[in-house]
Structure formats: C-alpha cells, structure tokens
C-alpha cells in the first residue's frame, strides 16, 4: 500500500458514491460511518460543527478497501485497517497538512493508527475510552420490570430532552457541538427517543436511536440521571427502544458500551445483546 492509494472525496455525496457499497457491506462494523454520513446527507455538511467534514477512501484497482471521515471538532473515524494501511493513511493525512485531534476505530485499527501517528508526529496518544460494540440477539426484557411504562418523547418533553442531552454529554466527557434545541427537535419529529416514565407520568430514563441505514439501527444515547440509577429504568427504556427498532424493520440493532462501565455491559448482555468487537478512542 502507498499513501497515494488514499483518495479525498469532495463532499458526502461523492464519498458515498465511491464508498457507499463498501460501507453497506458490513453494516455493523461500519455503523458510525453509516449513521454520520446519513446525518450529513439529510441535515447538511454542518450537522456536527461549523467546519467542513473530510472524507477519504483507500482504493486499489478500482475497489474500495477502507474509508475514513472526520466531522470537526470530532475525532477521525476509520473502518478496519491493517498496520500497513494505517501507516499509509497517516502519511496521506500529514501530506495534506491535516491536524487530527484523535481517532475512533476498532481496537486494533485505532492502536495501529495511534502508534503510527506518534512515530510520524512525536505526539503522544492518550487512550480516552474502550468500547464494546454489541448487536441484539433475542430480546430478553428484565424481570421484574420497574413500575411504569415506555412512551415516545413528544413536544411537551422538549425541555427535558435538552437538559438530558447536556447531562449525557457531560457524563461521558463529550462536547456539545450540536445545538441542544435542534438535537431535541429532530428526535421528537422523527420519534427517535423513548422515555421510561413512572406510573405518575414522570420521565426517569431515555433511550434514543439512530435512523435506519443499511438495515441497522443503533441505540444511542441511553441516559438515566444519577439519582435515579439502579432501579431498572435504563434497562426498561433500552428494551422498549430496541423493540421499536425491530418493529421498524431493522435487521441489526446495535449499541456501544464503555468497557469501564461493568454495570451497563452486564445489563445489555442480560437483555439480549451480544458482543461484536471492541473499539478504542484515542486523543492526540
């Protein structure tokens, strides 16, 4: 592989024209590129920030072998790469004069890219988080189920969604780059957040979902305020959102869990999620 085997795409449409079939060939492993490009395609190039996104593909003899994208200020997102492919990508990005704040990919790809980036730039990578990607096998609702019921978040819940979006981002060390009001409005309009509420009608947990792309839907985010945790609300909300994704026709229902959070990993496995592979996020 050579650095010039990597090719820039001008925009999301030209990127998908070249890489769309490749991304759809492995929808679980490519869930992040699929959902990010769908958001860019439907909401415009500034869906994730004010800077223009970048895209690229690794091609040999007309075949796409890998792809990358970045929506500033977020990390670079990669499809699986060999060590040699990761090294040529680093050379390609440096030649373009691009500054990369971090990388997100499957564990081996992320580690190979981070090591190569350090060798080329002398910047020390810092592991930010290890995640496990799960896919739904047979849905197994928790017993006993907490009191209450699931319902879709609606217009009357806008302020609650905005507040919980901010709290969720803070809890995972993320950056709020989308306008919280727009984030809430989009999900309300598309019916993409499920609340678990008490018998009195008070929301106590939420589970969102991504739009369906290539037959896959990812459950995200799942959030319960700290003072309400440990009561089964997150599991009930996740089950309800997962069931709705299946009813919508998803062939794959996916979610990520922070490997440092033993509680959430145990919960997702109890309700029927099975490991696919591990991911890693590095900061440079």
Please explain how this structure is put together.
The protein is α+β, with helices and mostly antiparallel strands. Helix content is 36%, strand content 28%. It has 8 helices and 12 strands. Strands 1-2-3-4-5-12-6-11-10-9-8-7 form a 12-stranded mixed sheet, sandwiched between helices. The longest helix has 15 residues, at 107-121. It is elongated and about 60 Å long. It starts with 5 loop residues before the first strand and ends with a strand. The model has no long low-confidence stretch (mean pLDDT 95).
Helix-strand blueprint:
Blueprint: E1 6-9, H1 12-25, H2 31-43, E2 54-60, E3 63-70, E4 76-78, H3 83-95, E5 102-106, H4 107-121, E6 126-136, E7 149-152, H5 158-171, H6 180-189, E8 193-197, E9 203-209, E10 216-223, H7 233-247, E11 252-258, H8 262-270, E12 273-283
Parallel strand pairs: 4-5, 10-11
Antiparallel strand pairs: 1-2, 2-3, 3-4, 5-12, 6-11, 6-12, 7-8, 8-9, 9-10
Helix pairs in contact: 1-2, 3-4, 5-6
């Amino acid at each position: 592989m050579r650095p010039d085997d990597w090719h820039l795409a001008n925009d999301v449409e030209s990127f998908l024209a070249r890489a769309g079939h490749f991304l759809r060939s492995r929808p679980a492993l490519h869930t992040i590129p699929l959902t990010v490009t769908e958001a860019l395609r439907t909401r415009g190039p500034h869906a994730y920030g004010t800077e223009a996104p970048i895209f690229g593909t690794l091609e040999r003899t007309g075949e796409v072998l890998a792809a990358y994208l970045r929506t500033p200020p977020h990390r670079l997102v990669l499809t699986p790469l060999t060590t040699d492919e990761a090294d040529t990508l680093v050379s390609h990005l440096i030649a373009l004069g691009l500054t990369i704040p971090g990388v997100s990919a499957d564990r081996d790809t992320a580690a190979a890219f981070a090591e190569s980036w350090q060798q080329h730039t002398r910047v020390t990578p810092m592991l930010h988080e290890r995640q496990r990607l799960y896919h739904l096998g047979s849905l197994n609702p928790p017993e006993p189920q907490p009191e209450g019921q699931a319902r879709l978040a609606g217009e009357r819940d806008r302020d609650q969604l905005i507040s919980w979006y901010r709290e969720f981002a803070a809890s995972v060390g993320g950056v709020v780059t989308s306008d919280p009001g727009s984030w809430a409005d989009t999900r309300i309009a598309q019916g993409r957040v499920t609340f678990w509420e008490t018998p009195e009608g008070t929301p106590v947990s939420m589970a969102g979902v991504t739009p369906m792309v290539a037959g896959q839907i990812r459950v995200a985010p799942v959030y319960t305020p700290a003072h309400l945790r440990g009561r089964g609300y997150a599991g009930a909300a996740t089950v309800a959102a997962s069931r709705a994704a299946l009813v919508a026709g998803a062939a794959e229902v996916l979610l990520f869990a922070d490997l440092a959070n033993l509680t959430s990993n145990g919960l997702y496995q109890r309700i029927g999620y099975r490991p696919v592979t591990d991911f890693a996020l590095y900061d440079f």
